Amino acid sequence: MYVVLVLASALCVCTAFPFGAPKGACVDMTPGHIYFNLTRVSPQGTASPYRITVGSNQYMSGETVKVVVLVGVLSLCNAYPNGAPKEACVTMTPGHKYANLTSVHPQTTPSPYQVMVASNQYSPGATLKVMIVGPAFQGFLLQARHNGNAGPVGSFSNAPTNTKAVQCTAENDSMTHANPNTKQNITLTWTAPSDARADIMFIATVAQEKNVFWLNNTSPMVTLDQGYKKEVSGNHV
């Protein structure tokens, strides 16, 4: 006796056969679903997020074999629904993976988001308003950085709804999403370090939805007010 247990994928067209696959699918395993315009629904061309595992690699006649379907869930914001991971602090890359464990890559098209600052100058200890402007989005990571340096500087406070300040290298030096709820045109509050000695810019990664995100959304340079000693060649002097 041969035992073959196969589970077919459900495409959103499950409503076409809500009580099981049609008998016509028994040979070629194709559901035969049709769109409303009567064109045929084709199978996905990407790697499947599903795996079928069997409890044993052998069986005997009459024996029951357990088959398990493991479902991979692909969702950028479900991967980190409560904020960007600490591993993203330097590269600003979320590090999300598809269910087949391949990496989700950033978008290569121009970003629809802008990072805007209320002032083009600042002084040590000053507070600035920073805005992420553009279409609605779900996730983000925002930092202020000295020109040419990779680490965040300053601190954020008064987090708006659905956002939170987090620590990458120092307390509250980065802002991220607190949940995957939709956000749009948010304004964040940043305070400069008391020993600031260099120009800064704000840099953000913005995730519009699921696997769609843009890196290197940067503000214009914010210059240190004249009268304060500036950083030279990336080092404090």
TrEMBL record:
Alphabetic keyword roster: Signal
Annotated ranges, domain Reelin: 74-237
Plastid listed as a keyword: no
Presence of keyword Glycosyltransferase: no
TM region positions: none
One GO CC term, this protein: membrane
Leader sequence segment: 1-16
InterPro entries: Ferric-chelate_Red/DefProt (IPR051237), Reeler_dom (IPR002861), Reeler_sf (IPR042307)
Pfam families: Reeler (PF02014)
Family in the record: Belongs to the FRRS1 family.
Listed name of the protein: Defense protein 1
Organism: Branchiostoma belcheri (Amphioxus)
